[in-house]
């Protein structure tokens, strides 16, 4: 059975390395580790089909902008007949401290518009997720400006570590049940 790993973010140079794009950063880390590239452009996204630990996997970066992420995820899942239980979505979380990584098997959108879009279009909350902490903005900074801003130099080390941990968890999921991966990485 094929698996799908989706990293959420916004397309374009303007949004590279912003807090909202940590999902893209994890996909980039996996691509770098294995010498892969997002060589396919379809389903409103950039993706690749690969094999890891004997398991087939699709890695996807939606190109729809965050609020419409489901418009990329749903058609890809349908085309490759991937069940939601074989979906793993990686995204930023304001409610976790910077550098913290949390895995879950289900849940709501928690106010995250990309997750809201995926839950609505896929029609279920029953899919795996990796949340990467980006913390909340300081007083006087809007949430929008904060998530579309870049990490400070002081934060870069923690972010880099969390991206590496999330990529490790993605790789572990290729040959272990997600519950086992959760227990190892939470």
TrEMBL record:
Q: Which InterPro entries match?
A: Pept_tRNA_hydro (IPR001328), Pept_tRNA_hydro_CS (IPR018171), Pept_tRNA_hydro_sf (IPR036416)
Q: Which reaction does it catalyse?
A: an N-acyl-L-alpha-aminoacyl-tRNA + H2O = an N-acyl-L-amino acid + a tRNA + H(+)
| Record keyword Transcription present | no
Instruction: Indicate where this protein is primarily found.
Output: cytoplasm
**Which GO molecular function annotations are given, in alphabetical order?**
peptidyl-tRNA hydrolase activity; tRNA binding
Residues noted as binding tRNA in the record, renumbered to the chain: 15, 65, 67, 113
Q: Which UniProt keywords apply?
A: Cytoplasm, Hydrolase, RNA-binding, tRNA-binding
The protein's name is Peptidyl-tRNA hydrolase
Identify the species of origin. Amphibacillus xylanus (strain ATCC 51415 / DSM 6626 / JCM 7361 / LMG 17667 / NBRC 15112 / Ep01)
Organism ancestry: Bacteria, Bacillati, Bacillota, Bacilli, Bacillales
